[in-house]
Each structure stands twice: as structure tokens, then as C-alpha cells.
Amino acid sequence: MTYGIMGKILEVDLTSKAIGYRTSDITVFKKYLGGSGVAAKILMDEFDLGVDPLSPENPLIFMNGLLTGLPVPTGAKSSFVAKSPLTGIWNESTVGGHWGAQVKKCGLDGMIMTGKSETPVYIWINDDCVEIRDASALMGLDVFETSDKVKAMTDAKAVVACIGPAGENLSKIAGIMIGGNETRAAGRGGLGAVMGSKNIKAIVAKGTKSANVYSRESLRDLLKDFLPILNANAKSLHDFGTAGGVQGVEANGDLPIKNWTLGDWAEGAEKTCGQNMDYLGITVSHHACYACSIRCGKDARVDIGPYKGAIGHGPEYETCAAFGANILNDNIEYLVAANDICNRMGLDVICAGNATAMAMECFERGVIDKVDTEGIDLTWGNGPSILDFLLKLAKKEGIGAIFGDGVKDAGDKLGGLAKEFAIHVKGLSVAFHDPRAFTSMAVGYATSNRGGCHLENLSYFCESGAFPPGIFGFNKPLSKHSDENKAELSVIMQNLMNVYNALGLCKFLIRGKTNPETIATWINAVTGWDMTGEDLMVTGERLHNIKRLYNNSMGISRKDDHLPPRLQYHDRRTGAAAGILPNMTKLLTEYYNIRGWDNEGIPTPERLDFLDLTTI
Amino acid sequence: MITIELKGQLIWCVDKKKTIPIETFEGNLKDLIILLRLPESEIGMILVNQKKEPLSYCVKDNDHIIIVPVVGGG
Predict the structure, then answer these.
(1) A244, CA 20 to 30 Å: which among A20, A129, A441, A557?
(2) Are the C-beta atoms of residues A604 and A597 closer than 8 Å to each other?
(3) CATH architecture of the domain with residue range A440-610
């Protein structure tokens, strides 16, 4: 009997409309755990990595984590994986909600989508029955409309993953959106455009199966003491969502302000945080992802703009930073409306927010003007203009044609000074945690496999005290004003976060002070394996390295592992992180040494042998 | 008299007060955060007269205490 996983993976060829299955190889799952780990192995073994990301030859892989859809805390996450049209390198985009769990109920561990349909389609997975159906009636609809309509065409209780107009228009900052107006997003890296390039408007799943668990009793016993700790430590997340962290981020100098140029914004942070949305009654209710007791999802009322009166998934922290501090907008109503537009259009808020900030800086410096914007006044903090700009972005019309494929592309198009305003690593806009506040994040961003990603490292949680690294045995001193020990912390956290992604666990599980040994006991209860915490961390290292090998084959090396100049060379004058800059030469050299990579950032044969990756 | 300065989201725990003077207080920093009903899991660092101190630090008269929250967000 197979435990944990369902045992098969769906294969859909959109060109021929052929539908088939492959057996999930348990030895592969044991070595790569699932999610983006197993997807990486499949991509490396079976597909040409040199393809155009928006060509039919670029496969779009969806893979559940080993623990996705099981009664394990936060076991809701799954990964979409493909070569990114935004960066041209490895991309994985994890998403929560109820999508992965529902796919598992259909008896599937994942899906591999290849080719391109001639006409728009949606894929309807109804337990064991899979159909490719005509989606012409869905084209042009936004995410909320698509979800509602396709459920009416299939099953009201189905879960929907779809693209919005941004994905249809092949915007390289389009995401794959889950759950209609309870929006969760596989936002990063432009995978909405990959889905759009295959002419897939939506994937719909409804199933009735459940995975075998080796010992439900052991699992229950293990979780009995753990859950109260998680719930107590994550109370703020429950009460106010991730947006409840805006002021704390600002107080630590970690909040990007005015396109990453300023150091403090305390009054603005107070107006644009989750606590204020709760206080003003904008937050109307909570919702949870599958198997999660934290319930950090918030539903927010939209009080302004074209969708005034609607209720949808409220702004997360990243959205508050994107459409608050980083564009100097302290009007919470416009912030909520901007969030709603991104969710409806299917835009990644981090990329869209960075693009908005860059456009405003370009406008201020005269790089673009009102002729370019067709009358949109892109002065800092101008609420109505933000909404107009985002709608243009999704359609790639007018000024949206310049910024609709992300900041790097916009910098290349505008040239000169504009390139300095484009805050990205390897083409992916940097997420809204400033590496000048916690410098372990500097080397983390520089070496993250998908580019400017905070979730591949998450070490700001460690440096700020939210996840003390002593929990996983790291007891070396960490100072805000020194780079000592930061590279080592970054390596450990990258390895651990690779494990999280492959297992299908949410990063907020760390609020339960969760160490690898604890997670290993859950895996063993689910699968009957005998994994240790140490095994898990080696697996995490293996996963980081296989993705690095993918990128190395795309030409990525030390020359690409850097921050944008603004974050590497320009310190801020005020705030809790004033004057701090990371020493990237020191950090990278230490990082490569610890990783067992050569001086150019290529894994050495000895390290690959240790990680059992020599055949990749 | 001691003065407590709250940073970040911690102000919402005490009716959005950013500074709290306390005439007399006996105990350590852990006692103080219990008195103020601040969630310990949300506290990243406590500075007393600009120096980082542990929860076991015994509060003294004239201390200026800054309480900084952990970083959250997503």
C-alpha cells in the first residue's frame, strides 16, 4: 500500500488533447519529497530546458507536496513549476487555499501539461474523469467571474485554478489564481502567462478520495501538543493576517518605502496595516487554507474604485507594502481597491507593486510623462491613478505595454536612468523585505533560485526573533550591523524552505517554533518511513542544488548573483536600518564555500556526489 | 518613573499609545510585558537605555524602555 501520496500523475497534451497518467515513483518522492522537488527532477530528466518559456514545448507542471491535503498543520500548499517567461530560469510558485487538497481528492499527486491548444480550453478533473472542454465563454472574464462561471458549468463545490486577463494577455507578471474571490495566488514568475500560452483558461477539480496514512493515531498524538503552541504564537496572524505585520516590518527598517529609497514611514504604516483595516471595519471575516488552524486569510470590503461594494480576499502584507509604503499611499481604501484589481486581473502583487513604484519614479524624474501615461497622473501616492495604471498593466495597453512584463523589461525598454529604478534579482521583482535591514536576506535574494524571492530564505524571521534559529541548532551571534554568520544562516534557511515547499507546508508553520525533527516525525507517521531531521535538511540541500543546476544550465553563475544597485550600494539615512549595507563579496564567498560550490557559484562534483545528484 | 516606548503593531495592544510612563514599577521585563498585556511571541527585542536586555533584566527607576516587535508579514 502507498501512504501519503496518491500514486499517479495526470498528463495532458494540449496539442493532441491526449490525456494519460504515469505512476508516481515512490523512490523519487522519498528522495525529492514532492511539490517543486519532484517537479524539478521531472523537468531535469525529461524536458529540453532551452525552450522558449511561452512556447508549447515548455511544460507547466503542478505538483502536490508529500503532506498536501493531509491532516498535517498548514498542509495546503502545492507548486506550479515551469521555466519562467519573466526570468528565463527556474520558477516555482507555491499556492495554498484548497486547490492542492482537492487535486489530491481526485487521486492525483500532480499534473504535467504540455503543448498548446488551438482554442481556449479548461480542464475539468471530476474524480477519475478528466475532460478538456471549450473555454470560449470564459475568455475575457476576470478571476472572480471565471471561477463563478466555470463552477456553474461543472460543480458548485469544485475548486478552480485560473488565469485572469493578465494571463490571457501573456503578461509576464501574471499569476495562476486559486479559489475565486477567496484568492490565493501562484503569483510569482509569470506562470499565468505560461498557462495562457497553452490556451488553458482554467483547471477545475472536484474529488472524493483520500490518501492512506500509515498511522493516523500517531499523527494525532504528535499534533496534540503542537497545535496549541502554533495557535498561540500565530495569534496576530489569525487576528490581522499577514497585513498585521506592516508596522513591525517598518519598525525594524525592513519596509521598502518610495521605491526602496527611504528608511521610515511610521504614520503611514499605522494607516495601512491589518490592525487598521480591522479597526475601520474593512476586514469583514476570516478564512483558512486546508488543514490550517491559523486562519490568516481575511475578507475585505472594497469601498472605492470600479469594484466598489465587492468583498474579496483582503490585502496581504506584501500588497500593503506594494500599494502603501513603496508608492507613498497611506489611503487604505485605494490600497484595498488596488489589491482587489490585482486579484481580479490575475497579477502578481509584488511585481505589479514594484512596477507601479518604478513608473512613479520614472514620472517624477521625467523619464515618462502624461503623454506616455495617456493622462494618468502618476505622482507618488495618487490613489485613483494606481487603479487606472493597474488596469492598463493587466491589458498591456498604453503605459501598461511598457510595464506589463515587469520592471526589468520596462528598464530595458526605457533605458538609461530607468534601469536604476527597476528593483529585481534575475528579472524577478524583489519581495518587500529590505535586505539592508537583515543582511542574511541579501545573500538569500542573490542566490534564490527563482530570483528576488523572500520565501526561499525567510531568514528575516530568524534575525528579528520571530523564528529563533536556536530552534534548529544555530546559536551563532547575529547582529543587524554585521554580516557575520549571515551566509550560513541563509544556507540553512534555504535548505529548510526547500523542504517546506516540497512537503506542501506553509511558511507560517515556523511560528510554531517547528524544527526539522518535528516535521520528520509527521512524515514518518504519514508514510511509515524512518526519516530524521538531518535527512530532511540534506534533502533540502539536494533540492536547492538541483534547481541551481537547472539555472547553471541556463548560464547562471556568480555574475548573476547580486542585488540591484540601489539595495547593494545605497544606504538609507533614517529608520531602524539606517546606514546598513550588505557586503556582498564577503557574503557570497562564504555562501559558496558553505554550499560546496566553486568560486563561480557552480556546485562541485564532490558536493553533487554527496547529494546523490551526479546523474542529473 | 520609567518610560516605555512601544514600536510597530504593539501600540494596538494598549489603545494605540506609543509612550507609557509608569510612576513606580518593581520587577523584571517579563513582569512588565505581562502587566502591559503584550504578547511575548510578538516581541523581538527590548532596549533599555539603548542597550538590548533579556526578559530577566530587573527594571530600575528612570529606565527608558523601547519594545520592538518581531518582523511578520509574508
Answers:
(1) A441
(2) yes
(3) Orthogonal Bundle (1.10)
Please provide residue A79's backbone torsions phi and psi, each rounded to the nearest 5 degrees: -125, 135
Closest chain B CA to residue A253: B71
In chain B, the domains with their CATH numbers are 2-69 (3.10.20.30)
How far is the alpha carbon of A465 from chain B, nearest alpha carbon, in Å? 5
Percent of chain A with pLDDT over 90: 100
* Grid cell in block for residue A216: 493516523
> Region A47-56: what's the mean pLDDT?
98
Sketch the domain layout of chain A as residue ranges: 8-206, 235-408, 440-610
A328-351, pLDDT tens digit by residue? 999 999 999 999 999 999 999 999
Nearest Cα to Cα of residue A204 among A150, A253, A165, A254: A150
Q: How many CB atoms neighbour CB A52 within 10 A?
A: 12
Report yes or no for ipTM above 0.90.
Answer: yes
Tell whether the model's pLDDT for residue B74 goes beyond 90.
no
How many inter-chain contacts (A to B, CB under 8 Å) are there?
91
Q: What is residue A212's three-state secondary structure?
A: coil
Is A432 within 8 Å of B73 when comparing Cβ atoms?
yes
Whether A470 has a pLDDT exceeding 90, the answer reads yes
Element (H, E) at B6: strand B2-6
- pLDDT for residue A41: 98
pLDDT over 90 at A274, yes or no: yes
SS3 B5: strand
**Is residue A466 within 8 Å of residue A609, measured between CB atoms?**
no
At A344-371, the pLDDT tens digits run: 999 999 999 999 999 999 999 999 999 9
The pLDDT of residue A616 is 82
Q: Which fold has domain A8-206?
A: Aldehyde Ferredoxin Oxidoreductase;  A, domain 1 (3.60.9)
Instruction: Give the pLDDT of residue A1.
Output: 87
Residue B48 to residue B53: CA distance in whole angstroms: 6
Q: Which residues of A touch B8 (CB under 8 A)?
A: 247-252, 269
Contact B44 A466 (CB under 8 A): yes
Q: Residue-wise over A313-326: b if at least 16 C-beta within 10 A, else e?
A: bbbbbbbbbbbbbb
pLDDT at A192: 98
Question: In chain A, what residues touch B71 (CB-CB under 8 Å)?
Answer: 245, 248-249, 252, 254, 433, 438, 460-461, 463-464, 466
Round the average pLDDT of chain A to a whole number and report it: 97
Query: CB-based contacts of A602: which residues, under 8 Å, 6+ apart?
Result: A552, A557
Cα gap A34→A66, rounded to integer Å = 5
As to burial, measured by CB atoms within 10 angstroms (0-12 exposed, 13-18 middle, 19+ buried), residue A593 is: middle
**Fold of the A235-408 domain:** 1.10.569
The pLDDT value recorded for residue A198 is 98
- pLDDT given at position A558: 98
Is residue A409 classed as helix, strand or coil in its secondary structure?
Answer: helix
CB A394 within 8 A of CB A400: yes
